[in-house]
Write a structure and sequence with these properties.
Elements lengths: L9 H10 L1 H15 L7 H13 L4 H18 L4 H14 L20 E6 L6 H14 L4 E5 L5 H14 L2 E3 L7 H14 L4 E5 L7 H18 L6 E7 L4 H13 L4 E5 L9 H9 L3 E5 L7 E3 L2 H9 L5
Parallel strand pairs: 1-4, 1-5, 2-3, 2-4, 5-6, 6-7
Antiparallel strand pairs: 7-8
């Protein structure tokens, strides 16, 4: 069991299973047709498996990597039954995914010396503000003092929404008027956190990919302002992606990676889509740990990502 297994209980597993239901149904239906009457994994089964993975929006590159690994196992082990396919699927898919660093696991900051600063990036509409609200709830529930920073000052709605979340969760928020300098908001947020001995700071930022140069300049300025007060911050640059957009989410990830040093991912809205396999494509191709997944509307439905539990929920053929 992974380290995260200690944090992943029965309720979390139930939420994960329910959240991935649409993706899982389509995948298992395709696979069940492929293995009915089969005793071994042959080319036909592999072709059907490839089609099922692509249908779950795992993506061509990641699907081919998985199929290649399974082909190697079949060749090496000479005879692989369809009953063994479940175990091989789990092992080979999980092996493609990067574990989050141990210090990033859980909802407790790794150090009590300085505020743990999370800079949240992502385009409008991906569930960024909702993710921040759920993060704040989870960190507060774990006993932390949380401060939010409303640095997306280009949209009044973004500040208003974050304010509503701060009130709902019961955490502090630092904000300025619409059109204010985002880095000034970030500065004030860090100052407030240090004055109040808050140990978690979550800062929202604007997501305007149509002007990459401006976005890069803005994010770099925010980082510089933060680092003048806390040289090691932000410890986490969290990119929020909408899983229901499938391969478009992967393209967004690549674009954000080109303009800022993303080191953690949150993939939202997996409960309303059959494209949950995109989590694997993003994690595999971006080589960045998926830290959170959103599988529902409730506050607790932002789950820490456990690759073994995810693969088990999505690809366990013994649930046929």
């Amino acid at each position: 069991m992974s380290f995260l297994g200690k944090l992943f209980g029965k309720k979390e597993k139930e939420s994960l299973n329910q959240g991935l239901e649409k993706t899982k149904q389509g995948f298992l239906e395709r696979i069940s047709k492929a293995i009915i009457g089969k005793t071994s994994v042959d080319d036909e089964v592999l072709d059907q498996l490839e089609e099922a993975l692509i249908g779950a929006d795992v993506g061509v590159d990641t699907t081919l990597a998985i199929i290649e690994k399974i082909q190697e196992r079949v060749k090496k082990e000479k005879y692989v039954s369809t009953l063994e396919l479940n175990k091989i699927l789990h092992e080979e898919i999980a092996s493609l995914l990067i574990d989050a660093p141990t210090q990033q696991l859980g909802f407790n900051p790794p150090s009590a010396n300085n505020p743990y600063v999370i800079l949240v990036v992502g385009v409008n509409g991906v569930g960024k503000t909702t993710t921040i609200g759920k993060l704040a709830h989870q960190y507060k529930a774990a006993g932390n003092e949380v401060i939010l920073g409303a640095a997306d000052t280009f949209r009044a709605a973004a500040v208003d929404q974050l304010t509503i979340w701060s009130e709902r969760v019961g955490v502090g928020i630092v904000k300025q008027s619409m059109g204010s300098d985002p880095s000034a908001v970030a500065f004030d947020t860090i100052q407030s956190a240090m004055a109040k001995n808050a140990n978690i700071v979550i800062i929202d930022t604007a997501g305007r990919l149509h002007n990459k140069v401006h976005l890069m300049d803005e994010l770099n300025k925010i980082k510089r302002v933060i680092q003048k007060q806390l040289p090691d911050a932000p410890q986490e640059v969290l990119l929020v992606l909408d899983g229901s957009t499938g391969q478009n989410a992967l393209e967004q990830a690549k674009q954000f990676m080109a303009v800022t040093n993303v080191n953690a991912l949150a993939i939202t809205k997996l409960d309303g889509t059959a494209k949950g396999g995109v989590v694997l494509a993003i994690a595999h191709q971006c080589k960045i740990p998926v830290k959170y997944i959103g599988v529902g509307e409730q506050l607790q439905d932002l789950l820490l990502f456990d690759k073994d539990e995810f693969v088990d929920s999505l690809f366990s053929l013994n649930k046929l």
